[in-house]
Amino acid sequence: MRKRGGDEVFRITGARQGLADDVRGRQRRYVISMSVRTLSVVAAAVLWNVERHVAVVALALGVLLPYISVVIANAGRETPPSLPSTFVTGATGPPMLEPGPAEKLKKSSDQS
């Protein structure tokens, strides 16, 4: 929802995100996770003789993260949001339209 000049703008379509935006987002997540993997492998190499248990955890992260990243990147597009209902609920009150002239004449002739 955006505001422009005091008017509210609502999204009224159930369309999904564009394909180019979807691919760009998946590529960004993949690059970020591979950067974390690279840092964890470097940390494992640096910490191997200093803190062995931290180095093992970093190495395990470096081994498992590529598989997780590929699964997330290839998961596919998001599901489209559900469309709003076409039925008006809770509408109580008089009808919005008045009867036409033919209906008024029919009612007045039926009453006489």
SSE inventory with pairings:
Elements: E1 2-4, E2 7-9, H1 19-47, H2 52-73, H3 101-111
Antiparallel strand pairs: 1-2
Helix pairs in contact: 1-2
Description of the structure:
- This protein is mainly alpha-helical and 112 residues long.
- The protein has a domain at 19-78.
- The protein is 55% helix and 5% strand.
- It is built from three helices and two strands; from the N terminus they run ββααα.
- It has helices at 19-47, 52-73, 101-111; strands spanning 2-4, 7-9.
- Helix 1 packs antiparallel against helix 2 (52-73).
- The longest helix has 29 residues, at 19-47.
Concise structural overview:
The protein is mostly helical and 112 residues long. The chain has helices at 19-47, 52-73, 101-111; strands at 2-4, 7-9.
Overall mean pLDDT stands at: 76
Largest sheet: 2 strands, antiparallel
Q: What general form does the structure show?
A: rod-shaped
> What percent of residues adopt helix (DSSP H or I)?
55-70%
Order of helices and strands: EEHHH
N-end to C-end Cα span: 56 Å
Number of DSSP-assigned strands = 2
* Alpha plus pi helix count: 3
Fraction in beta strands: 5-15%
Overview features:
112 residues, mainly alpha, two-stranded antiparallel sheet, 3 helices, rod-shaped
